[in-house]
Amino acid sequence: VLLKEAHENAMKKSLAAFSENAVGAGLVRQKYENQLHGFLRKAFE
């Protein structure tokens, strides 16, 4: 349960930081957002 909460908090913080600093839109931005999701998923396995 604690690991899941830590994962959710990390996702929220990293996506907020990504959204603040990301340049571009559409497919390019989506590509990097998907990479971020994949990295976080692997980091918390």
Describe the structure.
The protein is mainly α and 45 residues long. The protein has one domain. Helix content is 82%, strand content 0%. It contains two helices and no strands. The chain has helices at residues 2-21, 27-43. Helix 1 (2-21) packs antiparallel against helix 2. The longest helix has 20 residues, at 2-21. The two termini are 13 Å apart. The mean pLDDT is 82.
Please describe the topology of this protein.
Blueprint: H1 2-21, H2 27-43
Features:
45 residues, mainly alpha, 82% helix, 0% strand
How would you sum up this structure in a few lines?
This protein has 45 residues and is an all-alpha fold. The protein has helices spanning 2-21, 27-43. The chain is elongated.
